[in-house]
Amino acid sequence: MRSVKIPLACAAVAAVVLAGCGTTSERTGGSPSDGAAKSCKGADGKYTIGMSQANVAEPYRQRMDDDIRAAAKEVPQFDVKFADAAQDNAKQVADVENYITQQIDLLIISPNEAKPLTAVVKKAFDKGIPVIVLDRKVEGDAYTGFIGGDNVQIGSEAGKYVAEQLLPDGGNIVELKGLAGATPQAERHQGFADAIKANPKLKIIAAADGDWLREKGQSQMDALLKANPAIDVVYAHNDPMAEGAYLAAKAAGREKSIKFIGIDALPIPSGGIKAVEQGRLSATFTYPTNGKEAVAAARKLLIDCAAVPKSQVLPTRLIDKSNAAQTYARENPAG
To answer: What keywords are annotated for this sequence in UniProt (predicted)?
Structure first.
């Protein structure tokens, strides 16, 4: 979705947009935009942005933070602070509360889980702080804008790939899910499960939560291998869990009889694109980190005093053996 710059004063923009430019003053009277002009200082202003990250143990999330840092360096008016919740909902709530106390000008958050973070995100939003939600959603609509991939579509594309290319004659699938309570976990499962219905000979015979982590994906797969002698494909909700599953299968001497697919496709040496290129994964699907888009949205809100879309959905694409090397070279020319 493309945003349109509106050359109006921030107060006018805020009157028609659910959340315009931010302020640390309390919103009153039921309007989400009361007093919103106070933080719109334009190019002459200085702005503190708080980034609340679900965890940095996942390479995807570390890359998201790195992309935000790199993009923010191009905006001299921005000072970005980072907090790592380490997959702890209570800590992430406390991190956001701390940002509110510090009177930041804008909050960027990638929630660990949706429901536990909804109230504190709403609290920030109701205090006039613009909130950009990345990747994982919260409940309700008390935020300025969401930026992320369409996880149902990504799961659907993965399901179609399995049904049409990896197992056209049917077979047994194991699913390694992300963190329960995180919206991408449910959506990636839903899209995949719906897509493989097109091939009635496909069956998900077992599933386990790997919490997005390589080590847990490996330990869960070790147990699944012992319980299931016939596995044809492992569908993991991200590349680190897919790599962990591959390592478990290799340790059991079964890696050659099983195909592995993941999601993220980070263009880094330890990422999914290289894993496809080197033959450990059959495929991965790109999932943008949304970092540069988040900073662009912050710039529109705080410097341009313009509106941003309520939802900005970024596309995915299949990475397999046919395009992995070319994609990696293009997205990481330094190697």
So the answer is: Signal
